[in-house]
Fold:
Amino acid sequence: MLRIISSRDTGSQDWMLCGQLAGAWVTELHEQWMRQRRESPDLLRLLDLSDVTFIDEAGARLLREMRSQGVRFVAKGVETRHLVENLEKREKPELRRFFGQPGDRGC
Amino acid sequence: MASPAILEAGSDESIAARYESLIRLADSIRAHRAPGDLFGVLAKELQQIVPFDGIAQFDESANKIQWHLCEECTKSNLLQPRKEHTVAWWVYQNQQSVVIHDVWHETRFPEQMRAVGDCGLRSLCVVPLTTAHRRLGSLALGSRAPYAYSEEEVRFVSLVAAQIALAMDDGMNSDALRRAQERLELLLALTNRIVSNLDLRVVLREISASIRRVMQCEGVSVVLPDKETSSLRIFALDIDGAHDHIREGVELPAAKRDSLLEVLRNGQPAVLDMSGDTDPAHHGLKSLCYLPLVSRERVLGILTLASNAARAFPPEDLEFLRQLANQVAIAVENALAYGQITELKEKLAQEKLYLEDEIRSELNFEEIVGKSEALRQVLKQVESVAPTDSTVLIYGETGTGKELVARALHNLGSRRSSAFVKLNCAAIPTGLLESELFGHEKGAFTGAIAQRVGRFELANHGTVFLDEVGEIPLELQPKLLRVLQEREFERLGSSRTLRTDARLIAATNRDLAAMVDENRFRPDLYYRLNVFPIRVPSLRERPVDIPLLVRHFVQQFSRRLSRHIDTIPSEVMEALVRYHWPGNIRELQNVLERAVILSTGSVLRVATDDLRIANRGRAEVRESAGGTGMQSVLDDTERQQILAALERSNWVVAGPNGAAARLGMKRSTLQSHMRRVGISTSRSGRLTRA
Structure:
């Protein structure tokens, strides 16, 4: 499960993710981000990944795209931080798969 | 005044005409069974042959006297208040005709005679209305002339009364039959509604409407006790018109509650006569009937019927109403049972979800991380075979993640919405394995105190994962083969063949082909299992994955154990990559969990010396072996490690402090290794050094 918590500041918005950025939840985050961009480009400034428990390959790709659009990340934990720090590396991507049922392991 | 058409009494013409009239009258009477119509026709026909100015009927069932033709009599509502003082009632009681030639000179029935005289009538002829089967009342003819009724005319009127009584009796029988048929139809309709709908409120609303129609009453409701508030509530209602305080869901006022509670307590119906009730809140209701809804000697609620008519629920209707209430009770009980089943089913489903989540989140990881070619190869195989229903055999050393691969196969396949049922064949005593796999009936063996559903039955439409399949005893293997081939099996102690559509995924760390050669595993079962083998590589075969796994596990354990590790020193990571990991990922997990617990700051601390010693030991073994007899040297090293672990754990194999946990492997795997390197248990179950 993934929960997106948004907090609005003057002229911008921060999002906090809670749970897994994997499988169908990657699509959900992408759609939310696209909707937000259509409504007001450049609004999303910060994505807090401190409470993310797992990021799969598609999640990592989405984060790379978000970073390229100017979104900054806050990450906690050795795995998430390493992943965020190496998003732009051009080597073969890591295998990162989640095989649980949808809805497993929320935050 | 007599009709001008009346012939002179006693003449031949008169007798013939009268009997002709009698025949016509009989025909008319047969054609008009409704009392209102009947007396209209009767008056018209009879007036031609018998003199009268008023005709009256005493109706026993309605308990009243009804006059026709005589307006004064109808207006003054003659004889109604005191029927016992009337000649009509006397005739009915005594079954004898009475002729009163002149009411002003009659000494009997003075009250009535005065009233009749006041209406202008002078003489009366009253005859009983009786058939061979029952007394129906009496028929009275009144004339404005005195001495209007001779004996002959009384005889004739008696014949007419007999015809009328027959027609009335016929009509009443016909009404009774129609009512009985309507009631039977109602019972049948109730039964049909009860069996075809489990929504209690819908059923009861329909039932109430049907009862109201057939019983011709103004309101029907079902009152059920509310367990939470210990009150009585109207659960379903069908009522004529709007009533503010009577509607579904309302709690009954205390005044009504008492009589209903009494019915609930004693389980007997109660009929309330409210004829004298002037309370406007009762909306003119004159009769109430409370019927207990009894099922299996338990009163579930009350069926209430309300009518604006006085005495609407006579004792002879109570038996039928009881039958109605019994049907309603069945509906209530069915619906209550259905509600309980649904509630329990939902609860079980929720508990199942919770427990599954609990099992996954506490004991297992469901993520696969890595970047080695070997892992990519495995995932490619998993993705290829998962959508099919093929049996998969997963090979691999202990702790390599065979179960994770099995779960991935299940979750990527079409059976993901059904159960993934796991059984570790090595963890179950041999004698119970068959029961675990196929289930047993109550009494199948001593100790089988209840029926048990086996794993193959549980996993119908889902997946059965048999871990350590190599441990299945030879004698059980044909049964497993039959399930795989025929999809059929029997529960222990049952001759009934059951079918299952479970997909089988098996795993082993044993060399099944070698076991086949040694006649320890059936070749036919081996070939059936080995349809699509997947080999999970050991961790030392994919050291490039170790840093990813380390970061993954450290982050997971930090979260679970509320630690804030944000640095893994490079020398720690190098030591972890260099270590040969005999217990594979499970061992890595255990080492990292221990390390996270022991790390007090933000830097991960691992006892790397232990890893170096273990590595050096292996290197020395390799050197001393000099490249010859490598297997025996490795076996010896393994034996030494197991013995050391057993010593440290005080020869306890299982449990959190047991040797298996220290070596990062399952108890069953350790026992298998022990057998292989010659460490065995004594007959008493104690471990001995071989």
About this structure: Strands of chain A lie at 2-9, 12-21, 44-55, 72-74, 95-98. The two ends of chain A are 8 Å apart (CA to CA).
